[in-house]
Protein 1
Amino acid sequence: MEDVKIENADAVERPATGGGARRSSKAKGARARSAVSAPMNGAGAAPRRRARRRAAGAGGGGGSGRRLGLWLIGAKGDVATTVSVGIEALRLGLTDTTGIVTECHELAGTDLVPVEGIVLGGYDVRGGSPLDAARNVDAESGLFGAALLDAVAPGLEAFGARIKSGFIQRSGPAVEEIATAAIRKKVARPSRWVSGVKRDLARFARENALDAVVVVNVASTEPTDEPPACYASADALLAAIAKDDAGIHASVLYATGAIEAGCPYVNFTPSFGSSIPALAELAERRGVPHMGRDGKTGETLVKAALAPLFVARNLQVLSWTGQNILGNRDGRILEDPTAKRSKSIGKDQVLKSVLGDRLGTSRVGIDFVPSLGDWKTAWDLIHFQGFLGTKMTLQFTWQGADSALAAPLVIDLARLAERAARSGRSGLLTDLAVFFKNPDGVEDHALVHQLDLLLAFAEELRSEGAAVLEAGD
Ligand SMILES: NC(=O)c1ccc[n+]([C@@H]2O[C@H](COP(=O)([O-])OP(=O)(O)OC[C@H]3O[C@@H](n4cnc5c(N)ncnc54)[C@H](O)[C@@H]3O)[C@@H](O)[C@H]2O)c1
């Protein structure tokens, strides 16, 4: 396989700072609670490790002057579209940073690239332009408004010129339906596709004078039934790709290309992406940071915040029933039972992890209701039991604009993954668990513990920055 290494901020050596050993005691407690879990749901392979730092931290220059390329797989989808409208709106000073976690004061001083310094590119398999996509999101869900769309149109057009045709393989029947005829007709060529990803990422970096490129998967959810045997090890996967094996999911091929190119990779979807033992191994081998799986933006976010309450008061949850109704394209894709199963597994994991044997039954439903557009409604009924066998209920209704919740997290993840790579980290970025429904390598799903991990990571980055300044004195 052709080896195109993209420069990931490794150009200038930075002194070692003790491998990130400086952490608050609160953060240390959070790490102890955060057990390392087995990789890839159900597959029995070696346990995952959290990101490692290379002995001499890679670095070079502060984040403020850097240009970060964000390569979105699923570049014309609702989440990607909202990322592009949001970045342009911020660049033009037409909106503020509400919703972007990395902009809150707890993460200040971590030396991230500025949001305005992010350049977008990516793959999709549908026709149309990002501006068409943005107009559709607006018509269906009213997220942007005509004035904002007019203002961001030139930026979206430029983004459109950086979107390339992707490929589908084991992407499920719903994706086959929305893909262009040309993409549907493509003969399976995984080896060429992976080389193509590496070439496209290198070209994207070169043509846009980027200091680093991060790849984020925001493509439609794939069915995750029956992972092929080659997902068990890096060598088996690379051999299967070389033989143009038609059983490998598109998300895995994109992730392989990203990791082989040396680009940090984030899987914002329930698809396999890098969340398989083979790619965990390859990422370690290549020294690339990566993380997944499935952004935590709505019902699961509320569950992760609420479930610890029942533990804190020693209450028994008799049943937790959640019903999600949504009307966007993601909802349509999730109509397919195999894609729906991929999503539901992640949604249910939180309760099992936090409540353990305090949980009676739980159920997650997902229904497609087209008239709702991007506005997802979740209704949860929690039936619980307290002292003297007293039965009580808690209900909540969450109505969120899915893409407006997801887009800022994609921006956060791109900035944090770039920063992690710049400081020499590789492997799983478990510190970023709070962003995911089903965080790779982290079994503790309590939101507050995962937030502790993020805050401790921020503290490490700040102290590394301070050490660099001292060394430069
Ligand atoms: N919106 C949220 O709050 C949220 C939260 C967590 C996870 N997610 C996940 O993020 C993903 C995107 O969500 P969305 O609402 O933008 O969906 P969407 O359907 O609007 O967009 C998905 C895009 O991916 C493209 N695509 C599909 N297969 C592809 C392939 N093989 N290569 C390249 N492009 C491909 C589609 O053409 C489409 O443009 C979904 O998997 C969803 O489950 C979304």
Protein 2
Amino acid sequence: MTVWDLDRDQWWPNHIIESAWLGHTPFAAWLIPNLEPKVIVELGTHQAVSYMAFCQANAKITDPARCFAVDTWQGDDHAGKYDDSVFHNVQKLNERYEQFSTLLRCRFDEALNQFEDGTVDLLHIDGLHTYEAVSQDFYSWLPKMSDRGVVLFHDTEVRDRDFGVWRLWEELIKQYPSFSFQHGFGLGVLVVGRDAPENILKVCQPNEASDFAKDFRSLFSRYGNEVIEHYQLLHEAEEKKSLSGRWKHAMKTTWRSYVPISIRKTLKTFR
Ligand SMILES: C[S@@+](CC[C@H](N)C(=O)[O-])C[C@H]1O[C@@H](n2cnc3c(N)ncnc32)[C@H](O)[C@@H]1O
């Protein structure tokens, strides 16, 4: 399978809700069949936009990987704190993939001992985005990576607040074959395994300015933007619906509070 083989049915995600990762869901659909991982681990799942994109693609391959989503499902300083309903929603979403997918509700470092060294083929790092946190996540999980291992980093383009993924990324790309998308806050693809599939290396070893790199980047940015635009339309429609509901409710209650009870009773008899 090459990048040009993808049709819309293959890259369109089922799980479309608010997330900074939405724009990368089409790339997840390309990556899984090209990497053919046996074990996928995600560090930082929240409402599972990225994780569901991996699972959706994984369900379609001949020999699906075992997938693990690791998160406390409590939130952090960047994602904000949230309540248990988020985890319960992800549990429901996961039912569809439970033959190969497991949710590990714990800290990233607590999950480490559940994996043998050299066994993880795809690691997605999307937890807290400070330089210290993301470095800790990368270096503590690196021994777990297999010979065909690929690590994804989200938010490589974000340079405000105390985000520091970009800094670690600049260090790592000097040591490993890599590729990065600039859209959707940036997604870095780092090949840490010595024996990665040819298609992955083809993407990760080009001259950044080559026609291939430009085409690959612009194709997935276009697909990603289509998903984001679709979400925005859904969101606007939802907003309108809830606004009109609130408006109707306000009119009803305002009318009640201004019209005296005696008149309201009389009006009711005419209905
Ligand atoms: C940016 S969100 C993940 C976004 C998600 N990948 C998506 O597709 O929208 C980061 C998540 O990482 C979790 N997190 C951050 N640091 C963690 C840690 N050390 N251990 C476990 N979970 C952590 C937070 O609870 C939060 O849900």
Protein 3
Amino acid sequence: MSTVSSAIEYWGRGRVRLAGREWRTLVSAVRLGGDSYRVIRPARPITHASLHEGRLGAQLSVDKAATVDLAFAWWLAARSPRSLVYLPLRSSGSSCGEEYGGRKLDLVLLHHSLRFPVSRWKRVRAHLSPSATHKVTLPPRAFRTVGREEHRRCFHRGFQDHLRWTIAADTLFLVGSRHAYELQGDGVRALAEDCPAHLAESPDTHCCAEIEMGRCKAPFPDARDPYSQLHVECCNLHW
Ligand SMILES: [Zn+2]
Ligand SMILES: [Zn+2]
């Protein structure tokens, strides 16, 4: 058997498809002063996804189920310019990744056009009400392929569509445009769709997505938005 055909068979066996998968969410509207914020979070707790502040940015350790939660959250965040997508990860039962030493964090994904003052998050989080569940279904090709030329544009001086980040109230905020989320989306998709096959073949493989945050390789370092990385790592112990 040729290498190519065995690779295809192996691919077929381990492959996970995101298209058609469903995710149940809770959607809350929180009023604060004269403003109202729409918060989307998963209806079921994410059992193994622990996010820690790390030396090079942030470290997120995920099991197989959590890679799907992250893919849904990413896809929704890209398409929901008026919502905050909230993954309450501090309550995850997992302590994997704590060797990175930093504090444990929640994750919030949002659009910069929302101009959400992160100093308000603690109060918004405290006022999340019980709400009805909504079902989200991933369409085919939910994560579009980003070409080389598009990636190259990230290095232009005037490029604005990078993911910004900040930490407040024990939460890592990723803030960007739809384009910014799409530029990093394939790494998130691959964790959920491709890594199960890699790990079925060799369970000790290091499978990860390196999500770039901040301004990457700009001619002048941007002190307010330094380059950093969200390292999302498949947990070999609990996969
Ligand atoms: Zn890695
Ligand atoms: Zn683990």
